[in-house]
Each structure stands twice: as C-alpha cells, then as structure tokens.
Design goal:
Elements (H helix, E strand, L loop, with lengths): L11 H19 L11 E6 L5 H12 L3 E5 L1 H4 L7 H8 L5 E5 L3 H10 L4 E3 L7 H13 L8 E5 L4 H13 L2 E5 L8 H14 L2 E5 L2 H5 L4 E4 L11 H8 L6 H4 L7 E4 L11 H4 L6 H19 L7
Parallel strand pairs: 1-2, 1-3, 3-4, 5-6, 5-8, 6-7, 8-9
Amino acid sequence: MRNLIRTTDFDRETAERVLDLAGRVKERTKRREMSTVLAGYSAAMIFQKPSLRTRVTFDVGMKQLGGHSIYLGPSEISMGVRESVSDIAHNLERWVDIIIARVFAQSHVEELARVAKPPVINALSDEEHPCQVYADFLTLKEKGLKWSEIKLAYLGDGNNVCVSLMLLGAILGIEMRVGGPKKYWPAPSYVEEFEKLAKNSGARLHLTEDPREAVRTANAVYTDIWASMGWENEAAERSGIFRPYQVNSALMAEAEKNAFVMHDLPAHRGEEITDDVMDGATSIVFDQAENRLHVQKAIILECLGFSTEV
Ligand code: CP
Ligand code: NVA
C-alpha cells in the first residue's frame, strides 16, 4: 500500500505502470467489463475546496470498482478547526480503506498520510495536483505522442498544476517551458527537483517571462486559472498581471501547427483562455477531464496494491 501525495511519490516505473493500467481500465470501463475488485472497500473523500471533476470521478471510480465513497465537505469536518488532522486520521483509519483529500495546506495532506494507516491520495493541495497531471499525460499518450516528443508550454501561474506537470514531465522525460511573470514562476526547489530527475530522463525545462518564447515550437499549450482556489481576493490584480499570457489564437499561432490546447478546468473563458481556442479543433480539455476517471481508478488500484490484478 502506498500514498500519492507528491507527484514524485511514484517513480518512473510506477508512473508507467499506472498509465498503462489506466489505459486498460478505460477500455474495460467502456466495454462495461470493469472488475469489481474493490467490493467492500470504502473511501473517505475530504474536500476543503469545491470540485466538479475530482469529486465526481473519484466517486464514480470507486463505485465502478465495486466500492463506495463518503464525501466530507468543508462544513462536515472543518479539518484542523473542529478536530485536529491527526485525530481525523485516527478515526477514519478505523472505518475506511483509502483517504482522498483536497486541502489548502500541503502539510495537512502530508500529515494525513503520515498518521493514517490507509493510503492517502492528494486530490489537490496548494502545492500539487498529481491526479490531474496523470490524466494529462495519459491524454497526450492517447494522442500518439511519445514522452520524448512532448514539448509542453504552460502559461500562467506556476503553482500546483504547473508544479505537478513539471515533476511528472521530469520523470517521463519531456521538454517543458513555463511562461509567466517571474514572481509567479514555480519555486526554485521545484526547478532543482526537475533538474535532478532530468538527469535520468533527459527532460528539459525553460522558464521565461515571454509568452511567445514559451509556446514557440510547443506541441501542447496548457493553461490554468489565474486566481486559484484560496486566492480569489487577488483575482482583479492577477487579471492585469497575467493578461499577456492569455492563450488565444494569436499566441497559438506561435506554437507548432495543430498544437494541442490543454486546461485542467474549471476555465474562466475570456481570461486565461478564449472561447475560440478552448472550443477549437485541437482542444483536448474534455479528454483530459474524461481521463481523470480512468487514471484515478488506476491510482486507487496502485495505492491499494491491486495494480496487477485488473
Ligand atoms: N481539474 C480539477 O481538479 O477540477 P475540479 O476542481 O472541478 O475537481
Ligand atoms: N490551480 C487551480 C486548479 C483547480 C483544479 C486551483 O488550485 O484552484
């Protein structure tokens, strides 16, 4: 049994196994032949922030695997306020087999994983979003790109999604560019981590304040909202700061012809991405969303030690 708290909790071999498994799980799900290996298993889903994709896909995924889940929203358990993180972990471990947690502080999901006996999956924290980027790389793989062929440009805020993209990209060996104002670049510790992982994988990273330079020759262009959950009070200020990094048709014209358009969603149309680009022929945003279901089933199976049985 294992946790997925940081993207780097899975090494390359595990990452490849999970992505292969996700592909098989997807085929079997489409044929309605999914194994119900998790019959009798329960998941606790702690969500301190709102969610459409993550909540629905974990819930549906657990049910399709034969298990079930219990949603614990912010008003139910007030993690760290009504009760300490550690006491919540010690309660949940008596009843459930896996804990899925969307939190503000990375330290909360780490404490849950340290204290609780069942595996813990990070369903988004202020620092990482590993489940999202597994779905993103599965999507690029399905589109026919080998890892070494991926030239991914990420535009905007260098926070959770960007960091997890960088780290999985570093593990798998892609070329990654991040375009954004320097103040919002990923923290230097993540850049160092990227470079360390890149020694084995051949991955390359380039950070720039120039959006055109970021997307030049990219075959996938990715963006995310400018004011993440918890930062909404900065929305007006960020709207001005990030404006030059909007993914629109003029910026896409600088990328490789037919470059894929990616977004983890929810999107703020007209801000970080324009309608024509998001709804354009090369947009794969809803394929990414679809793959959350299949990849998370694979992650659950990996964390519970069932990855070879499905
Ligand atoms: N991409 C993503 O995690 O979406 P939700 O916030 O709706 O779960
Ligand atoms: N960066 C975004 C991702 C949402 C899925 C946020 O943290 O709100």
